[in-house]
UniProtKB/TrEMBL annotation:
<dbReference type="InterPro" id="IPR017761">
    <property type="entry name" value="Laccase"/>
</dbReference>
<dbReference type="InterPro" id="IPR008972">
    <property type="entry name" value="Cupredoxin"/>
</dbReference>
<feature type="signal peptide">
    <location>
        <begin position="1"/>
        <end position="26"/>
    </location>
</feature>
<dbReference type="Pfam" id="PF00394">
    <property type="entry name" value="Cu-oxidase"/>
</dbReference>
<dbReference type="InterPro" id="IPR045087">
    <property type="entry name" value="Cu-oxidase_fam"/>
</dbReference>
<dbReference type="InterPro" id="IPR002355">
    <property type="entry name" value="Cu_oxidase_Cu_BS"/>
</dbReference>
<protein>
    <recommendedName>
        <fullName>Laccase</fullName>
        <ecNumber>1.10.3.2</ecNumber>
    </recommendedName>
</protein>
<dbReference type="InterPro" id="IPR034289">
    <property type="entry name" value="CuRO_3_LCC"/>
</dbReference>
<dbReference type="GO" id="GO:0048046">
    <property type="term" value="C:apoplast"/>
</dbReference>
<feature type="domain" description="Plastocyanin-like">
    <location>
        <begin position="36"/>
        <end position="150"/>
    </location>
</feature>
<dbReference type="InterPro" id="IPR011707">
    <property type="entry name" value="Cu-oxidase-like_N"/>
</dbReference>
<dbReference type="InterPro" id="IPR034288">
    <property type="entry name" value="CuRO_1_LCC"/>
</dbReference>
<dbReference type="InterPro" id="IPR001117">
    <property type="entry name" value="Cu-oxidase_2nd"/>
</dbReference>
<dbReference type="InterPro" id="IPR011706">
    <property type="entry name" value="Cu-oxidase_C"/>
</dbReference>
<keyword id="KW-0052">Apoplast</keyword>
<keyword id="KW-0479">Metal-binding</keyword>
<dbReference type="GO" id="GO:0005507">
    <property type="term" value="F:copper ion binding"/>
</dbReference>
Length: 565
């Protein structure tokens, strides 16, 4: 009798679980092949050979679901070393697949291959992939579209159609030669000639039907520029940032930094409007260097029934975008982003803090080597740093030396938790703060440490915005402000209820931003500015998160095909 009752109870429980949407989704394994190859491409009336994936620019679209496993074989057919980073993917216990060169892996050399193997856990929305070696991501990038588990609806109106919108840059010159020259001379690199929408600097067209709702998956894949984006005479509803749902809000203009993604709903006009609308993007910049100050325009074109007469020439309407140095718009836009923070999608903000950090981020300089003429500030070389440490990449992957206990001589664990020489960060700095230190220094965190990190912009060599990207984690943006962070008064204003959850956040020009995260992912995790010029100059560091006690809290052994340096 007892056995029958037990079996009936078990059957009831199983049938109940089966009826719960998405709960029993074991995940599908999806296979992709990425051939890194050269391809001739024509833009702005000239042709050049660029590095691509499968000959496509932008690269192929990865479409998956939450809970799916991705197995992606990357084969390198070009002269350059290469790695691929799956930007924003948590990589829980799969740090070997994260992709940044010399951090989690050695590069894939010419003629070699590597299989990236990871699972999409607890994420849905839009992420993206890109090269993570030198400046190859200028042309090596593509979208990752993560749909919810089967039978789990969107927490917003189901769209009629979904469209990735990748914003990028186009350089007429060879980007590898551009950054090599900059690092050699110490000067700022040449800037791009144009911005692009889905790889096109001037001809992208999005055809829409009246009375429909479109989900636009926006990705800023630009190498060095934060961007404003708008569609003339249309309102956009923001519903997702960095593959995390947000409380919906309406806006006519978006602000999006390199590395960030934003999903928006576009509701088209109920009837054919007898007009053509431009969608445009142009840069936001407050620094002192050169900038590509152009505007890229695509076309939003309404389709009519074939039996309806359409005027041969429709008026063209253009959006109004903020000025290039409008610091108020990014600040106001970012404060509108709030997590859903409901029972289905909670905001698990760390309420207690185990470890606090204050990182200054900004530009600096290195002395010019002897017997060389340099073209940086006052005859020096441009550099960039976090807490005045300009990070030197090792010649072997940090994750390997960490896993095998071979850190001696490769990295040190004395990365400063706070600035060693505090000063008025957003005022004119004393001259001796211009020069930076150099080294391969990391922060070591015990497993599951709750971290509060304040990132403070400096005005050394000019105040500007810095989009900081953290690998291996999402963080909650709990506060931001202008001027210097006040540790006595600013924490009282932190939002610990529904802050936005992101993987990339802009440190405001002349200001600060505070984030919290739980270090629940063992491995070595890169954090860096996503303006690649600043990344190349050393605005980067690494967190080493130790193993926990349980099997699912430990970093697994490296795959057999992990590339060698």
């Amino acid at each position: 009798m007892a056995t029958s009752v037990f079996l009936l109870s078990l059957l009831f429980l199983f049938s109940t679980l089966c009826l719960m949407p998405g709960l029993t989704h074991a995940g599908t394994t999806r296979h992709y092949k990425f051939d890194i190859k050269m391809q001739n491409v024509t833009r702005l009336c000239s042709s050049k050979s660029i590095v691509t994936v499968n000959g496509k620019f932008p690269g192929p679209r990865i479409v998956t679901r939450e809970g799916d496993r991705l197995v992606i074989k990357v084969v390198n057919h070009v002269q350059y070393n290469v790695t691929i980073h799956w930007h924003g993917v948590r990589q829980l216990q799969s740090g070997w697949a994260d992709g940044p060169s010399y951090i989690t892996q050695c590069p894939i050399q010419t003629g070699q291959s590597y299989v990236y193997n990871f699972t999409i856990t607890g994420q849905r929305g839009t992420l993206w992939w890109h090269a993570h070696f030198s400046w190859l991501r200028a042309t090596v990038y593509g979208p990752i579209i993560i749909r919810p588990k089967p039978n789990v609806p969107y927490p917003f109106e189901k769209p009629y159609k979904e469209v990735p919108i990748m914003l990028g840059e186009w350089f007429k010159g060879d980007t590898e030669a551009i950054i090599a020259q900059s690092l050699q001379t110490g000067a700022g690199p040449n800037v791009s000639e144009a911005y692009t929408i889905n790889g096109l600097p001037d001809t992208f067209k999005l055809k829409v039907k009246p009375g429909k709702t479109y989900l636009l998956r926006l990705i800023n894949a630009a190498l060095n520029d934060e961007l404003f984006f708008s569609i003339a005479n249309h309102t956009l509803t923001v519903i997702d940032a960095d593959a995390s749902y947000v409380k919906p809000f309406n806006t006519e203009i978006l602000f999006i930094s390199p590395g960030q993604t934003t999903n928006v709903l576009l509701k088209t006009k109920p009837h054919f409007p007898n007009a053509t609308y431009f969608m445009e993007a142009r840069p936001y910049f407050t620094g002192q260097g050169s900038i590509d100050n152009t505007t890229v325009a695509g076309v939003l074109k309404y389709e009519q029934h074939s039996n309806t007469n359409t005027p041969s020439k429709l008026p063209v309407l253009r959006p109004t975008l903020p000025q290039i140095n409008d610091t108020s718009f990014p600040a106001n836009f970012s404060t509108k982003l709030r997590s859903l923070a409901n029972s289905d999608y909670p905001a698990n903000v760390p309420q207690r803090v185990d470890k606090r950090f204050l990182f200054t981020v900004g530009l600096g300089s290195n002395p010019c080597p002897k017997n060389q003429t340099c073209q940086g500030p006052n005859g020096s070389k441009f550099s960039a740093s976090i807490n005045n440490v300009s990070f030197t990449l090792p010649s072997i992957a940090l994750l390997q030396v960490h896993y095998f206990g071979l850190a001696n001589g490769v990295y040190t664990t004395d990365f400063p938790s706070f600035p060693l020489m505090p000063f008025n960060y957003t005022a004119n700095p004393p001259f001796n703060h211009t020069h930076v230190g150099n080294g391969t220094k990391v922060v070591v965190l015990p497993f599951n440490t709750s971290v509060e990190l304040v990132m403070q912009g400096t005005s050394i060599l000019g105040a500007e915005s810095h989009p900081l990207h953290l690998h291996g984690f999402n963080f909650y943006v709990v506060g931001q402000g202008s001027g210097n962070f006040d540790p006595s008064n600013d924490p009282a204003k932190f939002n610990l209820v529904d802050p936005v959850e992101r993987n990339t956040v802009s440190v405001p020009s002349g200001g600060w931003v505070a984030v919290r995260f739980q270090a629940d992912n063992p491995g070595v995790w890169f954090m860096h500015c996503h303006l690649d010029v600043h990344l190349s100059w050393g605005l980067r560091m690494a967190w080493v998160v130790m193993d926990g006690k349980l099997p699912n809290q430990k970093l697994p052994s490296p795959p057999s095909d992990l590339p060698k340096c």
